[in-house]
Write a structure and sequence with these properties.
It contains 6 helices and no strands. It has about 190 residues and is mainly α. It starts with a helix and ends with a helix.
Length: about 190
């Protein structure tokens, strides 16, 4: 059986469809089943091809989305306000109440941090989508392999049942001959 015939047969058996009518994902699964090759992980999921700025954005998102950052930021705000309120009488206050410079710094931080976190989330969503596509491929293959195994087991069971019926018929023929021979001997 040629490679093309094997693929066409598997497509018909497992998906009840012609090989040419399959989607690219379904074809790749049929190809994997036909070659009995393991499902390899997408190379894009194995490698870290992020640029310096991508890694920096991911690190900012990791730090900015942590309780450590929140507590550290709260502490920095408390120190900033305490310093500027407590040292006002000595003339050492660099941002007196209403803390305009603090508001400017917080606005700048939010303006920079939000898009950086969104870049990181978009990249992570793309990687998650690739991982989900790989999971779908593996799950589809597993489902089709199980269906294929069921078909093989059913074929073996049918063959075994036919052999048992054949042996039973042969045994019945022998028993009928013996009954006929016994009846002839008595009569």
């Amino acid at each position: 059986m040629t490679k093309t015939e094997r693929h066409a047969e598997l497509a018909q058996q497992l998906l009840a469809c012609d090989y040419d009518a399959l989607t690219p994902v379904q074809r790749s699964v049929i190809d994997l089943i036909a070659t009995e090759a393991p499902s390899a992980l997408n190379p894009a999921l194995k490698s870290d091809d992020r640029s310096f700025w991508d890694r920096t954005a991911d690190r900012v998102a990791q730090i900015g989305g942590s309780w450590s950052f929140i507590f550290g930021f709260f502490l920095a705000l408390a120190l900033w306000i305490s310093w500027n309120v407590g040292t006002r009488v000595f003339g050492l206050s660099f941002d007196p109440y209403p803390f305009i410079f603090l508001n400017l710094m917080l606005s700048m931080l939010a303006a920079i941090q939000a898009p950086v976190i969104m870049m990181s989330q978009n990249r992570q969503a793309d990687r998650d989508r690739e991982a989900a596509e790989h999971d779908y491929l593996v799950n589809l293959r597993a489902e089709l392999e199980i269906m294929h195994l069921h078909d093989k087991v059913d074929a073996l069971r049918d063959k075994e049942m036919m052999q048992m019926i054949k042996r039973q018929n042969e045994t019945l023929k022998l028993l009928r001959k013996e009954v006929a021979a016994l009846a002839a001997a008595k009569g």
